[in-house]
Amino acid sequence: MKADARTMPLSPQALSRLVASRQHFLGFLRKRVGSEAIAEDILQTAFVKSLEKGGAVRDEETVVAWFYRLLRNAIIDYYRRRDVSERALEALAGEVKTQQEPDVALQDEICRCVSGVMETLKPEYQQALAVVDLQGRSLADLAQEANINSNNAAVRIHRARQALRTQVAVAC
After folding, report:
1. Are 16 and 45 in contact (CB under 8 A)?
2. Minimal CA–CA distance to 42: which of 31, 52, 29?
3. Global pTM?
4. CB-based burial of residue 129 (10 Å sphere; 0-12 exposed, 13-18 middle, 19+ buried)?
5. Exposed, middle or buried, 46 (CB in 10 Å: 0-12/13-18/19+)?
6. How far apart are CA 111 and CA 133, in angstroms?
7. Minimal CA–CA distance to 73: which of 29, 10, 17?
8. Alpha helices in 21-172 (DSSP H)
9. What is the per-residue pLDDT across 50-80, written as a single tens digit (0 to 9) for each?
10. 55 vs 45, higher pLDDT
């Protein structure tokens, strides 16, 4: 069975030519991406790719030209990924700018409603919500105050939140 040229490794001579041209490749990349670190990352990725697909190069004389083509494609990919990231960040920034803070009167009404609903819960659920959610303390603090173990405290806060959620949906 014949091996596919694309899966064959680079010859030692071709690999030597690429390694000998490393500084030239780095300079080529640095001019196009403007950053030493990014140029180095792209170069390392291209070296890995050349090891994986270098068997497609037929002779050692063309390996450098082939590698420059690989680098040009890597630069294009870098700018495409960067542009996608920038657009995503701009979209997120736009969402943050247009997001409004809730009306203070509405917040007060919601707080009154939730406080009223909390009073209808079992006392141990009220305690759990007060300690963990309102006071911002830990489950360990709840366990110690309620004289239960930490696993029971986690279950209790979970059930308290479920009960509150159900009651808020009904009342508010």
Report:
1. no
2. 29
3. 0.49
4. buried
5. buried
6. 13
7. 29
8. 22-33, 36-53, 63-98, 104-118, 123-128, 139-146, 150-171
9. 888 766 676 666 888 889 999 999 999 999 9
10. 45
